[in-house]
Specification:
Blueprint (H helix, E strand, L loop, with lengths): L1 H23 L7 H8 L1 H15 L12
Length: 67
């Protein structure tokens, strides 16, 4: 029963966050600094995915790639 409540709780939180974006989307305005910072999000996410795969391809840290 705890797993069912956990999954339902996660679903509710996800739904509330996504619904808030649609409801408040045009009412909220970001400053130019925040807009510029949000422009870097795709680059940082892609870097966070690729770098660990190249440094530790099998899930282990290896210094052989650095030498």
């Amino acid at each position: 029963m705890n797993y069912v409540l956990l999954i339902l709780g996660m679903a509710v939180v996800t739904y509330v966050i996504r619904a808030a974006v649609f409801v408040l989307g045009e009412r909220v305005t970001f400053s130019p600094v925040v807009r510029m910072a949000l422009g870097f999000v795709p680059v940082t996410v892609l870097t966070a995915i690729i770098v660990p795969m190249t440094v530790a391809p099998h899930g282990e840290w290896s210094r052989d790639y650095l030498a």
